[in-house]
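[AMINO ACID CHAIN]
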Amino acid sequence: MSTLERDELIAEVSRNLAARGNAHAFTPALEDHYRTSIARQRRRSVMAAALIGLMVLCAFVVHRTFFTDTTSDPIAFRRWLFTMAAIVAVAAATLAGAAVSRSHRGIDRSTIFGVIAIAALVTVSFRVETGDAATIGIYCWVMVPLAATNLTSLHFRQALVSVVSADAIYAAGLVTIPDLDPFVHVPALLLTISVSVMTLWGSYRNDRDHRALFLYMTRERLSAERSAEQNAALREMTTLDPLTGIPNRRAFEARLAEIRADAGVVALAMVDIDHFKAFNDLYGHPEGDRCLTAVARALTSAMRGRRDLVARLGGEEFVVLAALATPTDAPALLERLRRAVEKLAIPHATAGRAARPVVTVSLGCAVFTAMEASSQREAMERADRALYASKRGGRNRWTIYDAALASHGEAGLAREVDEVGL
């Protein structure tokens, strides 16, 4: 869901919650969202109602067939049995329709069709009966509005359509019975109407309360999602460099602190663009910004590890953190970084005495294990000393800090590019 769609939905939800007397007026989009969100629950309700109805109906048919006298009017019994079979088929179809429907619309259509069809078949069933059996069928009809509103969890408008349609079918079937008995049929009709009105009122209250609960929960959920995205955006703003889009100093320091807690060999490389001030003065700051962005992308593309990091410390200075299998892997990493920038072939007319007047970088690296790094400052100081050794050595090269040379006053072990043979 896009930010605009979510904001519009939150506004619509808030407007409905602020309505007087819980007079909810869902827009088509909100109505669809509401019904989609409860479709799974409604599917379970419809399937449970259909299964219960099928079991009760089958038990009733078995009892009527084997434990009552069916020989007095076999034709009427066969008609009734055929009608019961049709009701079972409709209930099974409703169950199957709810089970396979992929949207709330399919569940709704299946349920409404099932309720109205069963109402018509139940009316037929007591029309083909005679005597006490017909009277029992007439009074049992009150289960239809109960099933339409409570068991199948229809929305109020759907329940209203289903119950009114079913009651009209029932009334038409009742008043057209040839031997209408006012003392039996009128009370049955009044009972059915009373039960329908009460269940519809309950359906209305239940639907209204469910919608109110849905509105409250939706507002809280959407507000929480929006807050989480805003917090993520803020975290991204504080950990990403706005110009190049790569991590900044804050992100680098956090990753360095994490690495200290891990095992393994780590390379920390300081990277500086050669003669960048002269580049800016000659080509202008917009070109300088484009140069910084291109260098950042080149350094990032040269990394191999999933947890490796390239960050911009500020100005033309970058830092690289990379996990190594062994300390001897550091030269290949540094040369890969140096060549990635040189291959950009960004013209740099003031690149000093370089054979190719393009933008290049100097690198200084400190290799240590996570347990050896006594402090962040120590690791960065070693890499920084190696970086200045590369600059003094002529730039466009890399230097790996060597503790043995450093103990004799040297800056580190400078390795010329053409000596590596990579």
Notes: The chain has two domains: 3-225, 249-420. The longest strand covers residues 265-273.
